Amino acid sequence: MNPVQNHLNGAGLGLRRCFLSQIVDNPPELGFYEIAPENWIGMGGKLGKQFRAMTERFDFVCHGLSLSLGSTDPLDEPFVLAVKHFMQEHRIKGYSEHLSYCSQGGHLYDLLPMPFTAEAAQHVAHRIRRVQDLLEQKIALENISYYAAPGQEMTEIDFFNAVVTEADCDVLLDINNIYVNSVNQGYEAEAFLKAMPASRIRYAHVAGHYVEAEDFLVDTHGGAVIDPVWKLLAKAYEWFGVFPTLLERDFNIPALPELLREVDTIKTIQNAWQRYHVRQSA
Prior knowledge:
Elements: E1 11-14, H1 17-23, E2 32-35, H2 45-55, E3 60-63, H3 77-90, E4 95-98, E5 101-103, E6 107-112, H4 118-135, E7 140-142, H5 156-167, E8 170-174, H6 175-185, H7 189-194, E9 201-206, E10 210-213, E11 216-218, H8 227-240, E12 245-247, H9 256-281
Parallel strand pairs: 1-2, 1-12, 2-3, 3-4, 4-7, 7-8, 8-9, 9-12
Antiparallel strand pairs: 5-6, 10-11
Helix pairs in contact: 4-5, 8-9
């Protein structure tokens, strides 16, 4: 199995079909793009050609939606092998998935939380190891947002770290999910962040959410990133160093210039903390 060998750089953006035609001939200055392989495997026609034109010029990473790592259903190994072929075909630099499940005798079309138990941690870690064996590389595991934790025996962070350690996988650090969960579950976001396995972070996500109530946030990826999330990202750079970070926007997608302004905010924060760490090491 290969360790992380194809490093991402800088600030990235989730590629969406609605603006692909705008950027294929005049692409913005971005470090990398992210796509859901489920939406692009087997894509042909004009979109397929445009996608190929992008992957030939830029770094890409796959962020899966449907592998259902935490399910008790059989692992979809043919899909994993299809992802492997797709990544090889397009020279894609890595694959990430959610610490969740989305199937039980059929797909449920939502990312549901694992029970925070030692048994569940062993179960999902075993499946992650199998995925990594099939792909012949490590994957990155994302900390998810959740709204209930039935059967909880461990804290969220202890469960996440147990899975990552046992699976020997990397981490996709979702900053917005930490903030959303800290409000909904009543814990300290910075304490959770500081307990993350920093050496395993491959890249990060920032996104927006919906405020249902003062103490209830919904992780929609449908709005602008808010200031507390930017501040938490800066804190991560302060503690762990600067790592590649991607803007997620899945719904209510605004005009491309507005998206790129948020990506520029990532770049600004990255540059500031990069200079800080250079000064500290001088």
